[in-house]
Amino acid sequence: MNENQQQPLPPEVNENQPKQNRNFSEMGTFVVDLIKVLLIALVIILPVRYYVAQPFIVSGSSMEPTFYTGEYLIIDELTYHISAPQRGDVIVFKYPKDNTQYFIKRIIGLPGETVKIQENKVIIINAQNPQGFVLDEKYLPAGDTTFPYGQDTRTLGSTEYFVLGDNRLASSDSRFWGPVPTNDIVGKVFVRAFPFQTFKKFNHVEYSQ
Q1: Which of 53, 144, 148, 171 has the fewest Cβ atoms nearer than 10 Å?
Q2: Where are the chain's structural domains?
Q3: With respect to CATH, is domain 58-201 assigned 3.90.1150.10?
Q4: How far apart are CA 28 and CA 26, in angstroms?
Q5: Buried/exposed 100-120: b ≥16 CB within 10 Å, e otherwise
């Protein structure tokens, strides 16, 4: 083929079309494609953000040493639409006294149970254990089972959960303002995403009796 021979232009390019018009046409195509990408992203991301998982930043010392201020957590919002919360789950919920605030605590007592705090121990009384059993809380700091505010006994309703902070000396929880209703629970902690060096996935807690 003769190198000087003119190559045919692609069919979508009209050699007689002014360059400025072609630029406007290309820009319009780009904008349309960008809008499509954004719409698709919204369709995918928004349901995930509001119905499946959402971020939460820890503020305060009530869950130390499990979580510290500034840590970035991913909250699983989907699981509790399929199954009930379980003992040991760390949950984010709306503060029952002010639903504009969000708290993070650990579930200790389940609906229908009686939770008794006595002699620095948490005792759970339920249908399977009418005499009660002492909760074995391995996630607490070694030797730290202090309850500085005496004794407490609470019997939970059919839609109520008793929650405590892991830092019992610095936690505002069900000991002071009562149980958390099911409807106030946002979800459970799934992953600690930041700081990166402390990345961790949180699984169900197993208690020995």
Answers
A1: 148
A2: 58-201
A3: no
A4: 5
A5: eeebbbbbbbbbebbbbbeee
